[in-house]
Amino acid sequence: MSVNAPRSVTELQAIVRDNERVHVVGNGSKTALHNAHDGAASAELSGMTGIIEYQPSEYTVTLRAGTPVRDLAAALSQQGQYLPCDPLMGASATIGGTVACNLAGSRRYRYGGVRDFILGAEVVDGLGRAFRVGGKVVKNAAGFDLSKFLVGSLGRYAIMTELTFKVFPDAPSFRSLRLDYGPLEEALRAVYFINQSAFELDALDLIPGARGWSLLARLAGYDETLPQRVERFSSAMARETAPLDIEELADSGSLWNPLADLAGGCLVKVALSPKQIPAFEAALAGARRRYSVGGNVAWVATDEVDALDAALQKLALTGLCLRGAVKSAVIGEPIDNVLAQRVKQVLDPYNKFM
Amino acid sequence: MNRAFFAALESIYPPQRLLTRDVELLPYESDALTAFSAKPGAVVLPVNEAEIVDTVRLCHDHAVPFVARGSGTSLSGGSLPIPEGLTIGLNRLNRIKKLDPQQRIAVVEPGVINLSISEAAQPYGLYYAPDPSSQSICTIGGNIAFNSGGAHCLKYGMTSNHVLGMKVVLADGTVTKFGSESVEGVGIGPDLIGLFVGSEGLFGIALEITVRLMPQPEVYRTVLAAYDDLGRAGDAVSMVVASGLLPGAMEIMDRLAIEAAEASVKAGYPDAEALLIVELEGESIQVNTEFERLQGIIQQSGAFELRVAESEAERTRIWKGRKGAFSAVGRLSPDYIVQDGVVPRSRLGEALLAINALKVKYGLEVANVFHAGDGNLHPLILYDGRAVGALEKAEALAGEILALCINLGGSITGEHGVGMEKRDYLPAMFSEEEIDIMQALRRSIDPREIANRGKMFPGGEAPALKLQGLHPLEKAGVISRE
Amino acid sequence: MATAIEKCVHCGFCLAACPTYSLLGEEMDSPRGRIYLMKNVLEDKLAAEDAQPYIDRCLGCMACVPACPSGVEYGDLLVSYRALQEAERRRPPLDAMARNLVISTLPYPKRFRLAAQAGKLGKALSGALPLPFASMLNLLPDQLPASRPMPPVLPAQGERRGVVALLPGCVQQALAPEINFAAAQVLAANGVEVHNPPDAGCCGSILLHVGAEQQAQEIARRNFIAIPADIDAIITTAAGCGSGIKDYELLFKGQPDAERAIAFSRKVMDFSAYLSTVGMRAPAGFASERRVVYQDACHLLHAQSLHSEPRNLLNQIPNLRLLPIADAGQCCGSAGTYNIDQPALAAELGRRKVESILAVQPDLVVSGNIGCIAQLRQQLQSQPKPPPVMHIAELLWKAYTGSD
Ligand SMILES: Cc1cc2nc3c(=O)[nH]c(=O)nc-3n(C[C@H](O)[C@H](O)[C@H](O)COP(=O)(O)OP(=O)(O)OC[C@H]3O[C@@H](n4cnc5c(N)ncnc54)[C@H](O)[C@@H]3O)c2cc1C
Ligand code: SF4
Ligand code: SF4
Q1: pLDDT tens-digit profile of B330-355?
Q2: Would you say residue A67 lies in a domain?
Q3: Which chain B residues are within 8 Å of A115, Cβ to Cβ?
C-alpha cells in the first residue's frame, strides 16, 4: 500500500487518476475505517490544512478538509463563535473525517448535526474531477445539494478537499446538572418531559450508572441569568419527573465529551430514537455506553463486535465502528440504498473509493 | 400521451380524479408564477401512495413526463405543467399519519399543508419550524422540492434540516426509504435526505415524510424598528450579528413593501423608508436579558421609532404584514415578478444600492422584502403588463439582480428554487462540469428524464412565456383598470 | 370585474380557506381556480357552460376574501359574473317559473305569506335562489307562524342612547318574526329607540342576486323613502341583507340616486355590531350555566368582518359560557340552493360543522343569520338530543327577561 500526502487538489486528482483504488485518511484517527482497505493507495489529507476564509459577520467559515477540528474550534472561539454540530475533538480528528463519518458531540443537541451546518464543499470524485457542490452563503437553493450527501458518506463517493460551514455565536457561560433516576423508563420519561417543554438545553445525555440511570443536562447563556434558569429547570424537573437526586456539576469539556469514558475496545456509533433504547439495552448485554443527543445517538464500547452486530441486525439498526479491529466499519443493518448507488455510478463508477 | 397510456390511467383513476377536459385543465396551467403557463395533457388526483407509485411507473414505461403538484404556490414555475405531460396533484394525500410528541416527530403524507403540522402539534407545545410565508397553503411535498424556508429559519434551518426520514418513489418507479425517527436522520451512510430535499421534483415524488417538531419557545419578543434610510436598517442587522445575539428572525421591508402590507392587513406599520423586524425567542429569563441588549443596539442604530409587540395579537399583526407582503404588492401594481437571490450578509447594503440604481436605469419600481439575517433578498419588480415590452424589461431587471447576487458571492435562489424561471441562470453559478455532473446524476436516477422535464437545467423551449397586453375586454372598451 | 381578476396574483393563499376546495380537492373548485375560469370565460377562451358547474358550486361564503392578501374582491366578481351570465343563461322552463315566482313574491311579505299559505312555495323554489336567501326557505314550516306586529316606534328604555330603524327584511319577516321582535326588545332595553317603518321592506338584494336589477332598484328606493334619514343606523338581523346592501354601490352605479344609495348602505349595520358600538347594558343572565356555541355566519364573519363583536356580547351575559369550536370560520353548508344543487357537498359541510359543535357539548347554539339557523337545525335533527338553535338576538332577549 502506497501512502501519499498530496499538498494540492491537483496532486490529489493525479493520485485518484493514477490508482485503481484510493483510500482517504484524514489523520487516521478512526482506525476501524482503515482496516478493510489493504491494497489501495492511500491519500493522507494532513497536508491540506488551514482555514481559507472566515467571516464571523457572515456566520460562515471555509477550510481545507485536512484541518484538525481543534484548530477550527480555536479560531472560532476567538470570535466568540462555534460550530454547533460540535465535532468530536479527538487528538487528531480532521474536519473532513468528521463530515465523512458524520460525527457530532453532545452539543449537537441544541441546533443540529453536521448535515445542518455544512453549506458546501470542494471535492475530487472517482474520475479525478475536481468540483464544487453546495454554496458558500448560509442559504442556497440552486442545484442538487451534494454537500449534504457527503455527510456520512465514509469517503466512498468523493474526496472532500474544502468545506464550508455555517457557524453561530457561542454562549459565554455554561452550567451542568446531573439528574439521577432509577430504572431506564423513568429517565426516558424525563427526556420526554424535556422534549415537550420550552427549556432550551445546550446538551442532554443519558448515562447508565451503578444505581440507575442519570441525565446530564447543560444550560448555556449569560452568567447573570444562568443561576435563575438552572433553578427553574431543576425545580420543574423535581416537580414533574421526580428524580432521586439533582446535583450541579462543574462544567467541563470532558464532562461533555461523550467518549470520555469509552476508552478501549471497539467504539461504535448508533443512531436511534429514544423509544428504541429499551430494546437496544436488552440486546446490548452490558457493553459500556452513553446515549447522547437526548437519546438519539448511542456510543458503545465493546470487545464483542459480533454480538453487537447481531443485536443491531435484530433491531434493524446500523452501527459505525470507529475504532478497533473489524471486518467492516458498518455493522448491523446494511446501508445500501438504491439512490446512493445511483450517485455512486456518477461519482465513482469504477469503485476507486470502494 | 397515447391511447394505451390513457387507458392505463383509466384503470388507476375513476373519471372524477382523471382530469382531461379543457375546463378542468385550465386552472392547473400555472403555479404562482403566472408569467408561464402550459396546458398539461391530463391531471390525476391520487388519494394514496399506491396510486402515485403506479402512475410514476406508468409514466416511466411510456416515457411520459410528469410533474408533481402540491398547492401550486411555486414562484419559480416548479409545478408548471409539462406540455402534454401528466400533472400529479398530491393535495389529497393530506393525512398526518403519526404524531409522537414524546419523540417530537410527525409522519405525514406529501400533500399535508405546512401549517397543519404545527396546528396538530400545538396541543403538545410543539410546532413545525420552517415557515415559508405561504405556510398556510403550501405542502410539505413542495417544501421538500425547494428546501423551503421562511423568516424563522435563521436559527433552526430550512426544510432539509427538519426532515428525518422519507419514503420516495424515484422517477423510474423504484420505491425506497431512507432516514429514521432519530434526530440523526440517516445517521450512518450518505445523507440522502439532504440530497433529495431541494431536488426540485427531478428525482421523484416524496410519498411519506418524517419531520421533527420543535418545542414552542416559551416567549417571543418582537421589535419593529423604523428607519428613514434602508442602508441604516441593513447596518442594524450587522450590529445585531456582531453583538453575538442569535435572533429567531430578522426581516427588512422597504417603503413600497410597507405600503403594500399596510394596504393589505393594516398592520399599523410606521411611515418609514425601511422597517426592521427582529424577533428573539426562547426561555423567558434568557430572552429578557437578550432583549435589553437588542433594544440598546437598535437605539444606537439610528431607528427613529421602535415598537415592541406587547401581546400575541400585536406580534401576529406585525408578522401578518410581513408574510402577506408579496401578494399584497398585487394591490400596488397590476403585475410583478418576485425575485429571490442571496448575497453575503455583509454586502446587503451594496446590493440594495445597486438595486436602486437598476430601478432608475429601467424606470421600474422595485419593492424589497428580505430575510436580512441570511442575506436572502426578495426584490419585487413591479410592472404593468399592458405596456408593450414591460414584461421583458422587468425580466431583464430581474436578470441583472441575479447577476449582481452572483457577483457579490451569493446565489441565484435562496428558497424558491430554479424551476423554469431561473434555469438559464444556472450556468452563471455552476461550471459546465458541475452542471454535467448534476445532469448525469439526474439521468442515473431518471434515465428517461421524465420527472419535471424542462426544469432546473438550462435549454429547451420555455412554454408560453406570456406576453400580456391589453385585456380583450379592455380592447373592446368594456372595462378599464384604474 | 377585471380589476378583481387582475388583482389575483395566483398565490393560492385563498385555497386553505375555501370549503369547496377542502371538500373536493381540485383547483377548479377553489377561489383561485374559479377566478381563472371566469377570466377565461370573459376572454372568450372558455365556454360559459363549461365553467358553470364550478361557479355554481361556489357557496358564496366569502371565506376567500379575508384570506386574500392581494385584496381580490371575490364577492364583487362573483356577483357581477353571475349577473352577466344570468342575462345569457337559458334556464330550463321550471327554473324560469320558479325564478319568476321569486321575483314576484319573496320581496313582498304579504304576497309571500299568501303564496306560502296557499302551498305554492315548495321548498324546491329555493333552487332558483342564491345563498344566503334560499336557505331561509328551509325554515318554511307547514304552517307559518303568526306575524308579530310591532309598533311604529319602540321607545328607548332609560337614557336614550341611539335611534335606529329596524329593517324588516322579506322572507325572514314571514318565517321567523320572533327574531326581529327580540332584536327590537333588546335594543330598546339598551336605550335605543327603534323605528319600524311600516313601508320599509325587502332590501332588494335578493332580486339583484337573481339578476333582476331594475326591480331590485325599485324595491330599494322604497326603503330610501320609508326610512327616515335622521337616524343613527339601519339595523339588519339577517347576514345576507347586511352584506347585500353593501352591493348598492354596484346596483346604483350611474343612477341619479347613487349617492342616496351609498349613504343608505353606509348606515346599515348588523344587529350585533350596532349593539357592540353602543355598549350593552348588563343583562340579568341565567340562573344556571349555559354552554353556548356561536356559529359564525359567513356573511357576517367574512363579508362584514364580525368576529369579536357577537362574542363579546355573549361573554357579557352572566352564567353563559362561550365554547370555541374547531374550524369555526368554515361554512356550515347553509342549505338553500346548495342543499338542492349540491346535496352531497352541503350535507358533508353540515356534518363537519355538527361534528365540531357536538364535540364541545353545548346546551344551545346561536347564530346571527336565519340561513345558518335553518341549516343547523336540519343537520342536528337526526341527533338524539339536539341542542336548540336560535338567533343571537333571541338569546340576548332571554338573558334580559331571565326566561329560559
Ligand atoms: C405569496 C407566496 C409567498 C411565498 N413565500 C415563500 C417563502 O417565504 N419561502 C419559501 O421557501 N417559499 C415561498 N414561496 C414559494 C412556495 O410557496 C414554496 O416553494 C412551496 O414549497 C411550494 O409548495 P407547494 O405545495 O405549493 O408546491 P408546488 O408549487 O405545487 O410544487 C413545487 C415543486 O415541488 C414539487 N413537488 C410537489 N410535491 C412533491 C412531492 N411530494 N415530492 C417531490 N416533489 C414535489 C413540484 O413538482 C414542484 O416542482 C411563496 C409563494 C408564494 C405564492
Ligand atoms: S389569495 Fe387572492 S391573489 Fe391569491 S390566488 Fe386567491 S384570490 Fe388570487
Ligand atoms: S366564496 Fe367560499 S366557496 Fe366560493 S370560492 Fe370563496 S371560499 Fe370558496
Answers
A1: 788 888 888 899 998 888 888 988 99
A2: yes
A3: 160-161, 185-186, 191, 193-194
Which ranges of chain C have pLDDT less than 50?
Answer: 124, 131-132
Sign for the pseudo-dihedral over CA of C67, C73, C77, C83? positive
What is the rounded distance in angstroms from the CA atom of residue A165 to the CA atom of residue C182? 69
Q: Of A279, A295, A104, nearest to A213 (Cα)?
A: A295
Indicate if the alpha-carbon torsion angle B368, B370, B376, B378 is positive or negative: negative
What is the CATH classification number for the domain harbouring A292? 3.30.70
Beta pairing, strands B249-254 & B175-179? unpaired
∠ CA(A326), CA(A330), CA(A333), 5° rounding?
125
Which segments of C140-257 are extended strands (E)?
A: 153-154, 162-166, 192-195, 233-236
Asked if B236 and B286 sit in the same domain, the reply is: yes
Question: What CATH number has the domain bearing residue B287?
Answer: 3.30.70.2190
For chain C, list the contacting chains (3+ Cβ pairs, <8 Å). B
Reported as a single tens digit per residue, the pLDDT across B155-199 is 999 999 999 999 999 999 999 999 999 999 999 999 999 999 999
User: In this predicted structure, what is the pLDDT of residue C133?
Assistant: 52
Q: Report the C-alpha gap between B327 and B244 in whole angstroms.
A: 34
What's the burial of B326, exposed, middle or buried (CB within 10 Å: 0-12/13-18/19+)? Answer: buried
Q: Does the residue B359 lie in any domain?
A: yes
- Which triple of cell numbers denotes residue B255? 417603503
> To the nearest 5 percent, what fractions of chain C are helix, strand and coil?
55, 10, 40
Single pTM value for the model: 0.89
Dihedral Cα B33, B37, B41, B47, nearest 10 deg: 20
C18 lines ligand 3 (CB under 6 A): yes
Question: Is B173 in the A-facing interface, judged by CB distances under 8 Å?
Answer: no
Q: Residue B102, CB half-sphere, CA atoms under 13 Å: how many?
A: 12
* Alpha carbon of B265 to ligand 3 centroid (Å): 20
CA-to-CA distance for C282 and C280, rounded, in angstroms?
6
CA distance C81 to chain B (A): 13
Q: Which residues contact B20 (CB under 8 A, 6 or more apart)?
A: B42, B43
Neighbouring chains of A at 3+ CB pairs under 8 Å are B
Q: Nearest by CB to A149, from B155, B192, B202: name it.
A: B192
The answer for residues whose C-beta is within 8 angstroms of residue C47's C-beta and 6 or more apart is C41
Q: Which structural domain, as residue segments, surrounds residue A230?
A: 173-249
CA B279 to CA B277: how far, in whole Å? 7
Q: How far apart are CA A342 and CA A345, in angstroms?
A: 5
